[in-house]
Amino acid sequence: MRRRLSTYHLFTVLLLCARIISSSSFTAPKSKHHYHRRKSAINVEPSIIGGIVVATGATAAWWIGGAKDRENKANFAEYEALQRERESLAFVQPKDEWLEEELSAYNGENNESGPILLAVKGDVFNVWKGRNFYGPGAEYHIMAGRDATRFLAKNKLEEETKEEKKIELNIAERANLEVWYWTIRNKYQFVGNLSGYDPKATEM
Fold first, then answer.
1. What is the CA angle 88-180-113, rounded to 5?
2. Cβ distance 38 to 46 under 8 Å?
3. Structure pTM?
4. Which parts of the chain fold into alpha helices (H)?
5. Ramachandran region of residue 121, left (φ > 0), alpha (ψ -120 to 50) or beta?
6. Which uninterrupted H or E stretch holds 25?
7. Distance from C-alpha of 197 to C-alpha of 146, rounded to nearest angstrom
């Protein structure tokens, strides 16, 4: 709305200046060799009027550009405020140790704005920022609220059978897990350690 008003004001000023210039008139020459320079009806040199028009246009253009910049800053401030609110709603108090049973309460199903926890290689992370990946109905939701180590190592989104769970991870799966671990660690908040984790099960 401000931009439209600014454009309207610019057009009005330019139109007024154009009328002033068009209303200028010559003074009858006194002789063949003497003449008066043309002046506007308000006794201002046309060159000055032209300068006013240029200056007015430049000022108006600056104002319109400034209005856009102010609008962008306001939108960014609004976005930051929304992010702080989301972060506050998804906060969970970090602690030294988590039981895997405790994680199940933070799978995103009980609170659509709350924290989402998962464990990888004995570390527990709050992955609420990746709600579109780990939230209810999302592709990786099966990993939420539990130890996701073997899912990530095997690149599988299906439950393992009891027999499959007894098989140790091979070297390729452990290497794959390492990549996933550092991706998640660099992206999400660390909130504690998983109780009972055996590092030998995933070490290279």
1. 20
2. yes
3. 0.64
4. 2-22, 46-89, 100-103, 131-134, 149-154, 162-165, 171-187
5. left
6. none
7. 13
3-state helix, strand, coil in the chain (%, to 5): 55, 10, 35
- The angle that helices 46-89 and 2-22 make with each other, rounded to 10 degrees, is 180
Task: Give the pLDDT of residue 26.
Answer: 42
The structure tokens listed for 52 are 């006013």
Name the burial class of residue 157, with classes exposed (0-12), middle (13-18) and buried (19+) by CB atoms within 10 angstroms of its CB.
exposed
Give the closest residue to 42 by CA, choosing from 17, 74, 63. Answer: 17
Distance CA 48, CA 134 (A): 67
Flag the least confident range among 58-67, 102-111, 188-197: 58-67
Query: What order of strands is seen across the sheet that includes strand 97-98?
Result: 97-98, 189-194, 123-126, 117-120
Q: Specify burial of residue 15 (Cβ count, 10 A radius: 0-12, 13-18, 19+).
A: exposed
Question: Cα(194)–Cα(203) distance, rounded to whole angstroms?
Answer: 16
Q: Tokens at residue 11, please? A: 């057009």
